[in-house]
Amino acid sequence: MEESKQITVEVLLRPSDVYSPFSWSWSAIIRFLLLFIAFVFLYDTFAERSSEDHTEFLRQSAWAIAFLVCAAISLFVIPYLRTLIIFRNSPALKSTRRITLSDDGMHFESTDSTGDYKWSLFAGVMETRKTFLLKQTAYAATYIPKRCFSSPEEIQIVRDLIRKNFKGKYRLRRSTP
User: Fold this and answer.
1) Confidence at residue 40, expressed as pLDDT on a 0 to 100 scale
2) Where do the domains of the chain lie?
3) What is the pTM of this model?
4) pLDDT at 150
5) Is it the case that residue 15 has pLDDT exceeding 60?
6) Which strand ranges, in their side-by-side order, compose the sheet holding 131-135?
7) Long-range contacts of 70-78 (CB under 8 A, 24+ apart)
8) Phi and psi for 59 in degrees, rounded to 5?
9) For residue 3, how far is the Cα from the chain centroid?
10) Is the distance from CB of 21 to CB of 76 less than 8 angstroms?
């Protein structure tokens, strides 16, 4: 009979665990792509008019640059600032929590709450370069940063538990030697 594995970690989340604007995720790639398309469109539009009145071209270029700066701020800076505000205003995010993963699911324990969650609760599981995300919905997840594990072997145990017990869709990284 196979031995039941269990792993417990102490987690104190940081804003960078939840949101990093320059990570290579699909959402970040889409943000970069949108900004690039806007730049190409504006450049094309104003390049055609460069042979016209020079002052008009400069005025329109200034508007294009202002638009691109606002677009960059709205696509990258505002979501990060929103994450910082959420962390600042939520007392629960400032406290350490203990998360235990086992064949039965996840046991969550903090100063504010305690709960046992079966694997069937989660809608999906995703592993990024820095974090495990156990998604309850498309907009809510339990984050377990890899920095909280004491060794690479513990990270591999978490992967094994997910592969063995989670019946939904998951995306895990390959094991590193």
Assistant:
1) 76
2) 6-14+95-171, 26-89
3) 0.75
4) 94
5) yes
6) 141-145, 131-135, 124-127, 170-171
7) 71/34, 71/35, 71/38, 72/35, 75/31, 75/34, 75/35, 76/21, 76/22, 76/31, 77/21
8) -65, -45
9) 33
10) yes
Judge contact between 144 and 11, C-beta under 8 A.
yes
Tell me the per-residue pLDDT of 74-120, one tens digit each, with 9 for 90 and over. Answer: 777 888 888 899 999 988 888 999 999 999 999 999 998 999 999 99
**SS3 label, residue 56:** helix
At 168, give phi and psi (nearest 5°): -90, -165
Tokens of 147: 């920095």
Q: Please tell me the predicted confidence (pLDDT) of residue 53.
A: 65
CB atoms within 10 A of CB 12: 13
Give residue-wise pLDDT tens across range 16-60: 888 876 666 677 778 778 877 877 777 676 666 655 666 776 777
Taking alpha carbons only, the member of 121, 99, 102, 73 closest to residue 17 is 99
Tokens of 40: 């190409």
Architecture of domain 6-14+95-171: Roll (2.30)
Would you tell me how many other CB atoms lie within 10 Å of the CB of residue 133?
18
CA-nearest of 8, 114, 23 to 76 is 23
